[in-house]
Design a protein that fits this description.
Helix Hairpins; D-amino Acid Aminotransferase, Chain A, domain 1; OB fold (Dihydrolipoamide Acetyltransferase, E2P); 5 domains; 24 helices; 24 strands; 36% helix; binds 2-(butylsulfanyl)adenosine
Length: 669
């Protein structure tokens, strides 16, 4: 039976009341009802929706608690790329920036707006008709992951607006420090490792497959940009500051530590004061963002490739702390690199507790004269990995002990070697368990063969038990099914999952296989380029180093490493085994032998019926073409699906050829 009018009204009332409470609690920090009442309202709404599923609207607050559908993250193209900011580190850099602005605006008056630079993850929210319809990560700036369900769990993000407008809002998702600490306490209580820092934890949380888990993590957001999707939309808003106030009225979370200032001197003062008080904020910031306030002037000044010229980030100096270096241990990576690691007396620094820091290599230790039992100054810069800056010499103890690189690998006890001209030492034994473990972890990673269930501890255990001696053994696990299932602490179900995932990985395309086998200096991008150029593994095996080097974007260092890899007997044996196991060692047929899209640039727009966007992009790239996110005179074709918007208009304006999916399909064939 469908819900009657009274029930429909009741559900709406409940939704409105809860969304209003969310805003008061999460944005204004002024709750107006207690937790119990809130929970009761939510429960009532959930019951109603359970009884009448048609009442479960996309803007219902019940959507914030997540659901058990496993998220997949299709790629979305950002219509306007999500740029980054150029950095400045001191007053001189700011003066320089101001001079450039002065020149670009030719003496016309201007104002700056100073904002906090939140240390989180950039996201984009799209509202159509006032309804949140899409949430996405920044990704590489032109394409990100669609994470709508996960973003809906962020309680400060409005699910519906009072105005029926089409807008894109961008901002930063982050953790309040209190929440981050709470999560870490929970981790500890449950015997799981602590998270390193709020920023990475926020990034990881947004990519969780189960939105209920995301909901449990109580992420937060501040918005810092607004764009009307309808180009015709004329608004009275003329400045960035106005835009932000407009967003605030629409109940978006907008930070109040913002200031419009008249000159660069005042900018500097804002930066100085903010840096001095940064520790008082309940969240982490890593600088100040300075923007030209007038939207017209922003447009006039424009952008360069990666960042706008009308804005700059003023980065704070890295935070430092002093602590005792208890020991220096060695880590062996997947290609045998031996990295010395500082084991520290745990110390709190910039949002997390630090107990280890990299020491890079033995030269570095010698140069800085770092000894065990020293007090050292550590800092966390732009990188997440903390580093040891220097020794506090005044506090050097009598028992301080200089470090000496051992002659044998700490894991397998085989000799270690330092090649001429290199700063690193290497374990030379390819069978070293640490290397094997590293290679297997790389191989199964999501960005590589994407084999689920083979986490760090399981891999370690399987290596110990002799089931995994190298990556090829992964494809022999099925023959050990019985033994694996009888292992203590492994459920039959989790073994089934692993085996199924191993089977599925055989479908991974050639470029992923090439990336996964762990050729030094070959990241996923280089693997893509090599796969496209050489089509199959035999061409690559037979290629001369100079042939490889000739390829655009492949330098001599990569070429040499690729050449060496394919001239090592054990590697060729490994490839044969993987080939027999059924892995793909050639590019898909459609692309093999054809580069017919070479030199062509495509822009996709609207909803495609036959392909996912990601697929269409892959086809274009596999045929040597480029998929771009914005239409220009250089665009060869705009592939338009239904509901195509501004890009289609632009294509027509510029006289760029527009094609349908059918036409595209013909071109591909
Ligand atoms: S404006 C085109 N404002 O910093 C300019 N960005 O290094 C786009 N960020 O990717 C950014 N706080 O994730 C802007 N108040 C703020 C910001 C901010 C943090 C992040 C953002 C961006 C990165 C650039």
């Amino acid at each position: 039976m469908p819900a009657d009018k009274k029930t429909i009204d009741k559900a709406k009332k409940l939704r409105d009341r809860i969304l209003d409470a969310d805003h008061k609690y999460y944005v204004l920090s002024k709750p107006d009802i207690d937790d119990y009442t809130y929970d009761m309202l939510m429960k009532e709404l959930q019951e109603l929706e359970k009884q009448y599923p048609e009442l479960r609207t996309p803007d219902s607050p019940t959507q914030r608690v997540g659901n058990d559908l496993s998220n997949e993250f299709p790629t979305v193209i950002h219509e306007v790329p999500m740029l980054s900011l150029s950095n400045s580190y001191d007053e001189n850099d700011l003066d320089e920036f101001d001079r450039r602005i002065n020149n670009l605006l030719k003496g016309v008056d201007y104002q700056y707006v100073c904002e906090l630079k939140f240390d989180g993850i950039a996201v984009s929210l799209t509202y159509r008709n006032g309804l949140l319809v899409q949430g996405a990560t920044r990704g590489d700036g032109s394409r990100g992951d669609e994470i709508t369900n996960n973003l809906k769990t962020v309680r400060s993000i409005p699910l519906r607006l009072d105005k029926n407008i089409d807008i894109e809002v961008r901002g930063e998702v982050f953790f309040m420090l209190k929440e981050f600490f709470r999560i870490n306490e929970e981790q500890e209580a449950e015997g799981r490792p602590r998270y390193a820092n709020p920023r990475n934890t926020a990034a990881g949380s947004l990519k969780l497959k189960d939105s209920r888990e995301v909901a449990a993590r109580k992420l937060n957001m501040y918005c810092y940009s607004l764009r009307f999707l309808d180009a015709k939309e004329h608004t009275k808003l003329v400045s960035h500051y106005d835009n932000m106030q407009f967003l605030k009225k629409l109940r978006f979370p907008v930070n109040d530590n913002t200031k419009v200032v008249k000159n660069i001197g005042e900018v500097k003062r804002f930066c100085e004061e903010t840096e001095a008080n940064r520790d008082e904020l309940p969240y982490e910031i890593d600088g100040v963002v300075v923007k030209i306030d007038s939207l017209k002037q922003q447009e006039k000044i424009g952008s360069i490739a990666k960042s706008p010229r009308w804005a700059i980030a003023y980065k704070f100096k890295a935070k430092q702390a002093v602590t005792k270096l208890k020991d220096i241990t060695l880590q062996v990576g997947r290609i045998g690199t031996i990295t010395p690691v500082a084991e520290l007396e745990p110390v709190f620094l910039a949002g997390s507790t630090i107990s280890r820091a990299t020491l890079h290599n033995s030269d570095e230790i010698e140069r800085k004269d770092i000894r065990v039992n020293d007090y050292v100054k550590i800092e966390k810069g732009g990188d997440v990995i903390p580093k040891v800056v220097e020794v506090v010499k005044e506090r050097r103890a009598k028992n301080s002990r200089p470090f000496k690189m051992p002659e044998k690998c700490p894991v397998c006890r085989q000799p270690i070697h330092r090649p001429d001209g290199e700063a690193n030492h290497y374990c030379t034994n390819v069978m070293c368990p640490a290397q094997v473990q590293g290679r297997i972890e790389h191989f199964v990673a999501r960005s590589a063969m994407d084999i689920e269930g083979l986490g760090y501890q399981i891999v370690e255990k399987f290596i110990q038990l002799g089931y995994l001696k190298d990556i090829t053994d992964i494809y022999k696990l099925r023959s050990k099914e019985k033994e694996l299932k009888s292992l203590e602490r492994f459920g039959a179900k989790s073994i089934d999952n692993i085996l199924n995932s191993v089977e599925r990985s055989k479908e991974r395309p050639f470029d992923k296989v090439l990336y996964s086998i762990g050729i030094r200096h070959v990241g996923d991008r280089t693997a893509k380029i090599l796969a496209r150029q050489f089509k199959d593994i035999d061409n690559l095996i037979n290629a001369k180093a100079e042939d490889i080097e000739k390829i655009h974007e492949v330098g001599p260092r990569i070429a040499e490493s690729v050449y060496d890899f394919f001239h090592t007997k054990t590697n060729l044996q490994m490839i044969e085994k993987l080939r027999k196991a059924g892995l793909k060692f050639e590019s898909e047929k459609s692309s093999a032998g054809s580069n017919k899209f070479e030199g062509l640039t495509f822009v996709l727009t609207g909803t495609l019926e036959k392909y996912k966007r990601e697929e269409a992009q892959e086809i274009i790239e596999s045929l040597g073409g480029k998929a771009s996110s914005s239409v220009s005179k250089k665009t060869s074709y705009v592939l338009a699906g239904s509901d195509a918007g501004s890009k289609l208009t632009k294509a027509k304006e510029l006289g760029v050829k527009v094609i349908t999916e059918d036409e595209f399909e013909k071109m591909v064939k």
